[in-house]
Design the sequence.
């Protein structure tokens, strides 16, 4: 019986150093993570639709105390000269926003500041430590008036889509009560104490 010919074992390295296939942090939880590829350069004239998703085990965000944390952080970060949140809505485990930023760097800085403020304050509220936003925010530039309109509807009516808001008035866990672009008149006083922010106008797309 002839002995088997020995084979050299292959380890699958692409090269010495640099990026390797399969390297890097893997997505956690039920949903795949947002790609870590370099984001496209942002044109300052295009608003951006963004989604920030919290870790799966965290409490419902649609509560007065948690919404106030998000609302205050948005108002503070929107005072920056190069970044502003125009509209937002808070859902059970994520936040939708439409923002304007002067550049890709301004967008990244603004979102980092917003995420850090929200995470720190929610951890304090919930008396916990650890990650609040385990993944990158998802972004999409709005390049046409039609895309802007669809994004506004998507954000401000998102709670109806999820079945968590059925009242005739705009969702109080959003900037909807103060939004000035409704086709019919909306009483901004309804829920204004909980929703007051600079995010109340339609984007200039």
Sequence:
């Amino acid at each position: 019986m002839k002995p088997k010919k020995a084979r050299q074992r292959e380890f699958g390295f692409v090269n010495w150093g640099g990026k390797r296939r399969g390297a890097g942090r893997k997505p956690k939880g039920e949903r795949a993570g947002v790609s870590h590829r370099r984001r496209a350069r942002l044109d300052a004239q295009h608003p951006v639709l963004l989604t920030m998703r919290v870790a799966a085990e965290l409490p419902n965000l649609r509560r007065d105390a948690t919404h106030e944390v998000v609302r205050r952080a948005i108002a503070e970060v929107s005072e920056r000269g190069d970044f502003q949140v125009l509209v937002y809505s808070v859902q059970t485990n994520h936040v939708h926003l439409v923002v304007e930023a002067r550049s890709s760097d301004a967008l990244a800085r603004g979102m980092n500041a917003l995420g850090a403020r929200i995470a720190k304050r929610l951890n304090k509220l919930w008396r916990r430590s650890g990650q609040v936003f385990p993944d990158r925010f998802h972004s999409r530039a709005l390049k046409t008036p039609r895309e802007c309109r669809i994004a506004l509807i998507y954000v401000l009516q998102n709670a109806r889509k999820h079945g968590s808001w059925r009242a005739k008035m705009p969702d109080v866990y959003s900037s909807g009560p103060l939004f000035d672009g409704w086709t019919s008149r909306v009483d901004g006083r309804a829920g204004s104490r909980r929703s007051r922010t600079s995010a109340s106008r339609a984007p200039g797309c």
Remarks:
- DSSP finds five helices and four strands in the chain.
- The longest helix spans residues 104-126.
- The mean pLDDT is 81.
